[in-house]
Structures are given as structure tokens and as C-alpha cells.
Amino acid sequence: MAVIRWYEQPELTRSGGELERMKREMNRLFSDFFGKGTSSFRTGVFPPVNLGEDSENLYLRSELPGIQPEDIEISVEGDTITLKGERKLQAAENVSFHRREREGGRFRRIVTLSTKIDTDAVKAVFKNGVLKIVLPKVAEARPKQIKVATE
């Protein structure tokens, strides 16, 4: 039985090897050239979100430039929130693009929450392309302060 130690393996098979680096670089070049995989809109991370919390609420903030409030749909079910919508871009006739990074079309973003939410008390505000959602935690999920009694 042959025993091969990690340091004895050829450089090409190590995760940081030259072949792996070349593969990553070629994938990046093809992605840049054909426009695939480089846009966050295409890779499923549109819209970008920040999710934070305090003792009573979760706060979700999302940037949705160029989208109208009536084109956004928000739904909360169990421990997930879903943002759906559509970015409509004006059609440019007789224009040849040199670079096109903003995409239009439908999107859907599902975010798993760390706790259950009181769905009847969720509030959403959209202003200047930023969506702010306040997600109140259910009473059972909120921290409770226990007073210590003396005898």
C-alpha cells in the first residue's frame, strides 16, 4: 500500500495550485466576455439586502433602484420573507451598447429569518429606491427579563 503525504502531492492537485488558479482565471474571463455570472442581478443576489435585529424586531433594508413601489411584492411566511418584483427598463431604439450592466426583468429574493415574525404587524416603507421593512418578532421569540426574588 502506497502512502502519499500531502506535501508529496504534485502542485497541480493542491487546491491553491497553478491549474486551479488558471481555471478560475479562465472562468472569470469567459464570464466577463459573454456577460454571464458577473452581474449580481443574474446570479440571484438582486436585490441586495441587509438584515439586522434588536430585542423586539428584525429590520430588512433593500436597495431597489429604478423600481416602482407598485412593482414590489412582499410576503412573509413562517421564518422566510420573499421579495418579488420587476425592474422595467426603457427600450432604447437604434442604440448599440458598449457596456450594459443594468438589467431589467423579474426578480425573486427569499431570505430565511432567524425567528418567527408577527405577520400582522409587518410594516414596509419605500423611499428613494430603498425598501425598509420592520418585522416584529412574535412574543414567544422576544427575550424575557426574569426578576430574581430574595427570600
Task: Describe the protein in words.
There is one protein chain. The chain contains one helix and seven strands, in the order H-E-E-E-E-E-E-E. By secondary structure, the protein is mainly beta. It has one helix at 18-34; strands at 49-53, 57-63, 72-77, 80-87, 105-112, 123-127, 130-136. Helices cover 11% and strands 30% of the residues. The strands form two sheets. It has a four-stranded antiparallel sheet, with no helix packed on it. A three-stranded antiparallel sheet has the order 3-4-5, with no helix packed on it.
Produce the secondary structure layout.
Elements: H1 18-34, E1 49-53, E2 57-63, E3 72-77, E4 80-87, E5 105-112, E6 123-127, E7 130-136
Antiparallel strand pairs: 1-2, 2-7, 3-4, 4-5, 6-7
Shape: flat
The rounded distance between the terminal residues' Cα atoms is 71 Å
Q: Strand pairing plus helix content: what structural class?
A: mainly beta
What order do the strands of the largest sheet run in, or round the barrel if closed?
1-2-7-6
The domain tally reads: 2
Oligomer: single chain
CATH architecture of the largest domain: Sandwich
Radius of gyration: 24 Å
Helix content: 10-25%
CATH fold-level assignment of the largest domain: Immunoglobulin-like
State the CATH class of the largest domain. Answer: Mainly Beta
User: Largest sheet, described in full?
Assistant: 4 strands, antiparallel
Strands, total number? 7
